[in-house]
């Protein structure tokens, strides 16, 4: 009888230990892939101390996640599998998300059932790898072991409520001790934190860079708590001191009302936000043939075009929607959530609103209207009409599902029907991830054999867009609209494509430069950079003669300032110059402006 009881107790203990190991393996897999993707040399320089802290974080997370196993009656402990299943799905989603977006998928995105569509499904299927099974295999093996050996012993192990409460309290204490110890290590290595309390605030209350970095520092459970808290309190009430800081920052931005650079005043505006367009494709040749001849010719036009090929991507979890948000409002995105999903009802000042009722304003996209809340945001920005996949579906089918070709042909027809002057925002999708299969197996890009297959597929998509852009401009000239139209070509964000620098051209090995070209702008300027996406909004206000607008965004007009730096995150900058500190501070100011609904009169 004693042997049986001992075996029963051992079954419970051993299952708990194996469950901890299972969760630790899964979380380590997520952290490994994140760190490897954001830093190719991570494994070669990571210290044992860092690895030990990652493992300790994950042990603490496992202890916290397994609290139901400790607290529940033995016969109800099977519900622990729900926790393990949800945690497994979270890890798998991250392994699919990280290769494309170089960060964690925010919890808010798991609730976006409206985003589930053809593009997302195709992208997810293309991202699946056999290696991703490393987060599925451990719980699967654990479940088999549970059914074969542990289940009967666990359910037969009677434990009084007092003992279960004591074990749960012990689990919480161990979790907190691990967290305090790791925060202490951070504090000893941080010369800037003046106290242990300040280190706690820095660790747990601030998302300084990527969400994956927060996971590295603090673990999955604190990360989940942080995301839940920021979501619940998404609309914040600013203190008087915070209001003063926002006002002061805005007041210290450049104030000007002249129209010295207003060479595009009164012109039609077509802003083409290109999916995943990296600057390194510009002027790239394969066997002497240009990949993007149309874009190249635009960059060489020294009379009418403004060109910036070192524009740094500043998007966060909203990705494409964040880029469009910056170009339309002059605000930076939120670092933890997609602003278009959480703050779509804010009356933002915007480029369409600045143009006013004199302009016919419309938005054309290949997306479903619910994807990233695009239809609602179109109205929030001030566009009168929205044309999504439903409106251009016939054109998509007629063009063999070549999205960019269909979209630009449809826009060519739409602008014939609109009154002038007009502003049209065009959001392409043809260059969207994944790049695992060729669009046309026999194209000259594919048959060249250069680079990796993934890079060839990306370059093929870039070449296809470039061709359709050229056709679009040809149609614009044929309709006598070109001379009175400024065409703005901008990347929505960067796209790494391949983490191996030998897998793609050596131009811009980091792959973080985006494109900004203002065509037929009446100005000629080559901007060496680096600059940020946030700088485009005030630049367009300058060109369109809209400087009477009090709100000029949190960036700097490229026409008036020699920008040599950008803050791609609150804690990450590139370049050098006197603006870096303000560019970093802009992230916090923008966050306060958005989350407090600053532009609602009663909130100011």
Provide a quick synopsis of the model.
Helices cover 50% and strands 10% of the residues. By secondary structure, the protein is an alpha/beta fold.
Write the layout of secondary structure elements.
Blueprint: H1 2-38, H2 42-45, H3 48-65, H4 67-71, H5 80-101, H6 107-110, H7 118-127, H8 137-156, H9 161-188, H10 196-204, H11 211-218, H12 220-232, H13 240-251, E1 268-274, E2 285-286, E3 289-290, H14 293-300, E4 306-312, H15 320-329, H16 339-342, H17 351-355, E5 360-365, H18 374-381, E6 385-387, H19 389-398, H20 403-417, E7 422-427, H21 444-447, H22 453-478, E8 485-491, E9 513-519, E10 525-527, E11 531-532, H23 536-543, E12 565-569, E13 572-575, H24 580-595
Parallel strand pairs: 1-7, 1-8, 4-10, 4-11, 5-6, 5-7
Antiparallel strand pairs: 2-3, 4-9, 8-9, 12-13
Helix pairs in contact: 1-3, 1-5, 1-8, 3-9, 9-10, 11-12, 13-24, 19-20, 20-22
């Amino acid at each position: 009888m004693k042997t049986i009881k001992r075996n029963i107790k051992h079954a419970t203990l051993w299952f708990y230990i194996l469950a901890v190991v299972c969760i630790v393996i899964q979380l380590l897999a997520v952290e490994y892939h994140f760190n490897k993707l954001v830093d190719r040399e991570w494994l070669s320089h990571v210290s044992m101390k860092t690895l030990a802290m990652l493992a300790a974080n994950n042990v603490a997370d496992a202890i916290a996640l397994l609290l139901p196993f400790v607290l529940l009656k033995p016969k109800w402990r099977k519900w622990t599998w729900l926790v393990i299943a949800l945690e497994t799905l979270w890890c798998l989603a991250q392994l699919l998300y990280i290769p494309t977006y170089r960060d964690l998928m925010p919890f808010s995105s798991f609730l976006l059932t409206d985003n589930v569509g053809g593009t997302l499904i195709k992208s997810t299927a293309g991202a699946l790898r056999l290696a991703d099974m490393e987060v599925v295999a451990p719980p699967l093996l654990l479940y088999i072991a549970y059914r074969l050996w542990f289940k009967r012993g666990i359910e037969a192990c009677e434990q009084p409520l007092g003992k279960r409460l004591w074990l749960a309290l012990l689990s919480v204490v161990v979790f907190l001790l691990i967290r305090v110890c790791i925060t202490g290590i951070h504090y000893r290595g941080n010369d800037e934190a003046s106290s242990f309390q300040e280190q706690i605030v820095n660790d747990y209350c601030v998302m300084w860079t990527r969400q994956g970095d927060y996971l590295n520092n603090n673990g999955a459970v604190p990360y989940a708590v942080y995301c839940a808290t920021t979501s619940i309190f998404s609309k914040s009430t600013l203190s008087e001191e915070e209001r003063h800081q926002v006002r002061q920052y805005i007041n210290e931005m450049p104030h000007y009302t002249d129209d010295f650079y207003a060479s595009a005043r009164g012109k039609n505006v077509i802003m083409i936000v290109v999916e995943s367009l990296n600057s390194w494709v510009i002027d790239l040749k394969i066997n002497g043939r240009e990949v993007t001849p149309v874009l190249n010719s635009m960059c060489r036009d020294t009379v009418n075009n403004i060109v910036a090929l070192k524009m740094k991507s500043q998007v966060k979890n909203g990705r494409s929607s964040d880029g469009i948000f910056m170009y339309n409002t002059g605000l930076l995105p939120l670092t933890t959530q997609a602003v278009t999903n959480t703050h779509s009802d804010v009356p933002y000042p915007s480029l369409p609103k600045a143009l006013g009722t004199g302009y016919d304003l419309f938005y054309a996209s290949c997306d479903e209207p619910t994807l990233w809340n695009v239809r609602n945001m179109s109205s929030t920005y001030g566009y009168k009409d929205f044309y999504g996949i439903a409106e251009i579906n016939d054109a998509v089918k007629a063009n063999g599902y070549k999205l960019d070709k269909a979209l630009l042909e449809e826009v060519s027809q739409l602008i014939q029907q609109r009154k002038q002057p007009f502003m049209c925002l065009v959001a392409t999708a043809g260059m969207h991830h994944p790049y695992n299969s060729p669009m046309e197996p026999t194209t000259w890009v594919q048959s060249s054999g250069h680079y990796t297959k993934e890079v060839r597929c990306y370059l093929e998509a870039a070449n296809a867009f470039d061709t359709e852009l050229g056709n679009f401009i040809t149609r614009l000239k044929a309709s006598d609209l070109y001379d009175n139209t400024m065409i703005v070509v901008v990347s929505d964000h960067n796209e790494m494509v391949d983490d191996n620098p030998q897998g793609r051209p050596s131009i811009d090995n980091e792959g973080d430069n985006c494109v900004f070209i203002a065509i037929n702008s009446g100005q000629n300027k080559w901007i060496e950079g680096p600059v940020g996406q946030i700088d485009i909004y005030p630049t367009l206000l300058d060109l369109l003669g809209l400087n009477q607008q009090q709100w000029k965004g949190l960036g700097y007009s490229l026409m008036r300032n020699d920008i040599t730096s950008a803050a791609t995150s609150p804690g990450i900058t590139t370049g050098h110059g006197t603006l870096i500190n303000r560019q970093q501070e802009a992230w916090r100011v923008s966050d306060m402006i958005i989350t407090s609904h600053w532009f609602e009169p009663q909130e100011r």
